């Protein structure tokens, strides 16, 4: 049993150069569902998210808007990034900003330690820099520009020209860690997931690692290098450290020991930063490497990564305004295998909403509550003489509880939801076969009617618990209608079928009301 075990999950910290789109919301929802699931399994779960506020990209955006970078970041965090969490119902435990004092001070502490221990030296670098990625690019990561960028090399991710830079910088001796990294991927195959991401990282490191330029001196929007204030820390080196500065690194050893190491969720575009640079930094500092790095796929538009810079971003509220936050959460985690790319379409969203949420789950809940209200005056009947079909439902409840928890433990969120949906389908099939509405017509069938409704009621209780991380709003409403004590979030999810339920049902409004498809 996982009681009390620590589970620390993170999202990338997002650049505040622009407002969030559904790609950012996707990572948030995945992390939130995992955190909620682990929390409900009795673990000491902690979810961190936040914002990445330093570097040239933010500086340029702020300058173009005639404000200071800090003013810009404050405004975007307050008006866009924090409201996003509410829009999609994220229950994060902490929100870190790289401009927080707790972060900046401890970035300096970390850097000073690496400097004192001989992992940092002065060097010169010339290369193509992509401000969109905040990264020096290799030839393989560039392509010839076309149209207005004809004759210029452009970044393959942003399709924008890169800039040729020549700087005297501080370097991190990352090359020294290649062998230890390869040993890590070998000893812990689950360190980088999914398998395709692991293969990419292993073959990248096998080609040998360069040292990493970790400071910039041509602008000053960043954390000052502690021994040389003419340099600021390279934005990625600064940003990666958020995962430890947020949980006490450098200032609260007890908190740090309690939380670290984390499971990181990142889009596959930033996999190398997390699976190569970040563990090398931690090794250099003598700290434990992350529990794991999961690189999820992209939400695509017209076959390309949805992005702010290409103006293909859809605002999460465009979807939640119509379908609600529960359906948003459900859709992206159910329709896309976690780790694969996926596309969003309004048609698919509307179809799944109607078939799976409204007809499959919502209607099941309404029918069972309505029948107990009508045939039993709202009093939950007891299962006094269960038939084989009733035992079968009970055994499915146990099976999907175990299967979904095991899938979550492997970060296979879509498999966990699919496992729970077996119970939704089994209960709908059970009602079709048992026909409680027909049993209710003949008093001689009273005992059987009560057993069927008791079985369906219990199944709904198990479903409410199992679906609460994904559908927090709908399952809270259902929990109230079931007349069950406490909150649904307070129930143990790894033993969902044992939850204490109620003895009287209460009215239930439609969990997933009809949505006009023209919307
Ligand atoms: O990279 N599909 O921030 P960022 C799926 N600040 N996920 C997407 C996506 C899409 N189309 N677009 C964005 C940064 N994402 C750095 C991270 S971490 C120490 C620093 C999600 O604002 C995905 O999680 O560009 C991706 O990794 C993240 O947004 C990048 O956000």
Automatic annotation (TrEMBL):
Its EC number is 6.1.1.10. Gene3D superfamilies: 2.170.220.10, HUPs, Isoleucyl-tRNA Synthetase, Domain 1. It comes from the Bacteria. Pfam families: Anticodon_1 (PF08264), tRNA-synt_1g (PF09334). Its main location: cytoplasm. Zn(2+) binds at residues 130, 133, 155, 158. A motif ('KMSKS' region) lies at residues 305-309. Transmembrane segments: none annotated. Binds 1 zinc ion per subunit. Residues 406-489 form the Methionyl/Valyl/Leucyl/Isoleucyl-tRNA synthetase anticodon-binding domain. Keywords: Aminoacyl-tRNA synthetase, ATP-binding, Cytoplasm, Ligase, Metal-binding, Nucleotide-binding, Protein biosynthesis, Zinc. It catalyses: tRNA(Met) + L-methionine + ATP = L-methionyl-tRNA(Met) + AMP + diphosphate. A motif ('HIGH' region) lies at residues 14-24. GO terms for cellular component: cytoplasm. One of its GO terms (molecular function) is methionine-tRNA ligase activity. InterPro entries: Anticodon_Met, M/V/L/I-tRNA-synth_anticd-bd, Met-tRNA_synth, Met-tRNA_synth_2, Methionyl/Leucyl_tRNA_Synth, MetRS_core, Rossmann-like_a/b/a_fold, tRNAsynth_Ia_anticodon-bd. It is found in: Cytoplasm. Monomer. Is required not only for elongation of protein synthesis but also for the initiation of all mRNA translation through initiator tRNA(fMet) aminoacylation. This is Methionine--tRNA ligase. It comes from Agromyces intestinalis. The lineage of its organism: Bacteria, Bacillati, Actinomycetota, Actinomycetes, Micrococcales. The gene is metG.
